[in-house]
Amino acid sequence: MQVPTGGKLPENGRVQMYPCHSFEFHVVLMAIDPALGSRKSSVM
Amino acid sequence: MLDVWASIQMPKYPDQIARALRIPANGVRVHQDVDVGGSYGVKRGIKQTVLVAHLARQLGRPVRLIEDRLDNMSGGDAHGPERIFDVEVAFNNEGIVKSMKMRALDNAGAYAGRAPFQLGKPIGAIVGPYKIESVQYRAQSVTTNKAVQEAVRGFGQAPTNYAIETAMDKVAAATGLERIEVRRRNFIRKDEFPYLIPSGSTYDSGDYHTVVDKVFAHIDFAAMKQERDRLRAAGMLAGIGIAACLEPSGANSAFEPLLNEKNTTTTWMDSCRIMIDALGFVTVTIHNTSSGQGHETLVATVVGEVLQIEPDLIRVVRPDSLACLPSNSPVGSRMAIMLGGAAFHAAQKLQVKLTRIAAHQFGAGEDKVVYASGGVTNPKDGKHSAGPTSSISRIATTICCLKAWSPVSKARM
């Protein structure tokens, strides 16, 4: 069984669902001071 | 009457307050025309509202509840997921992942609450952005003596994404491939959409490779590595994390049909009401608390496109709960999908109604009247009345005079 595909609003007036699957891509440089526990991050 | 202004995004908030205080639901009036600030899990809690409202009603005077962090944690407020994953993946020497077994053990706290939902929603994107052809997913939620769990991060998918991404890093380590290369090899390609994943969701579209290419074109990855090495040499614990993930939106609508195929719609509807005044201007009523997502812009844009009216001419309002149709709040990243859908359907209904009334006025068949550019064309003389202050205004005025039709259209989604 498939859920309805999205892509455009429905034309038949039927209640329809649009499971939107947004894509995310992250590149993160993280550093933690082992003595203090403080962190420094650079997020892309 | 209990009037409530609160920084809360709880679905069915007025009903829950009434139930907790054992008063009629129409004795609670939640004012929705306030922005609730940040949008996160504990904004669904009603503890503070119930306590303050109860004491204020008992004492007959204003009551302030002050709660520090320790009070908050020991006082039974909700926490995020505490989830243990066990992931096995089958992959070849090229780093292509063929299959995945995922087991999730979730600490729901003292009451089930919404914790099982948080295990259910990831089914809608259980393979993330990857072409994993078979999946076994076993999720268990257990009650413990801890505080209850609340829906967080719109909701439930983030821990699953972390588990999938950790598995991808393990595949890279085992094959000796770069982590990003393993991801590129396993991404669904743009020419493969719409793509049906093993759990039953269909991803409609995407171009993951291009997104990644653009990110790497924007950053200096070699410099990041040098900086990581410099930090490590300086005694810091440093590393570069990579994550590619999908976030299903629409809340329950994203996974309810997967759990029960008889469920052809969602149990979590949303609604809006569109009204045309006697001068032909459009006002849309919504019942959806806002954290600044831009409900008004979304709804005005959708309604404007359907009615072919300039969105700036459309007024979107959020009146109190007693003056609204029911809603389920914007939780779970559902606002644009569910409220947008309701606005679309309501506008469609209204356009049909306007066309029927225009046909009646023109003495023509409904199929002869064309709605376009915010107006209608008289099939007898071909004259087009466009713009909200012309044809729609006259139709709305006619409606008001005749009392035969309601110039209101409602839709639920």
Strand content of chain B: 15-25%
Q: Roughly how much helix do the residues of chain A carry, as a percent range?
A: under 10%
**What low-confidence regions of chain A span 5 or more consecutive residues with pLDDT below 50?**
1-7, 13-17
Instruction: Determine the N-to-C terminus distance of chain A.
Output: 38 Å
Strands of the biggest beta sheet of chain B: in what spatial order? 11-10-9-15
Distance between the termini of chain B: 30 Å
The amount of helix of chain B comes to 25-40%
What global shape of chain B is seen? Answer: globular
What would you call the structural class of chain A? mainly beta
What is the gyration radius of chain A calculated from CA atoms?
A: 21 Å
The most extensive contact between chains is: A-B, 33 and 56 residues
Number of E strands of chain A: 2
Q: Helix count of chain A?
A: 0
Mean pLDDT of chain B: 86
**Beta-strand residue fraction of chain A:** 35-45%
**Roughly what is the average pLDDT of chain A, rounded to an integer?**
68
Main sheet summary of chain A:
2 strands, antiparallel
Order of helices and strands of chain A: EE
Beta strand count of chain B = 15
Please describe the structure with a list of short key phrases separated by commas or semicolons:
heterodimer; A: 44 residues; 2 strands; disordered N terminus; B: alpha/beta; three-stranded mixed β-sheet; 34% helix; 20% strand; globular
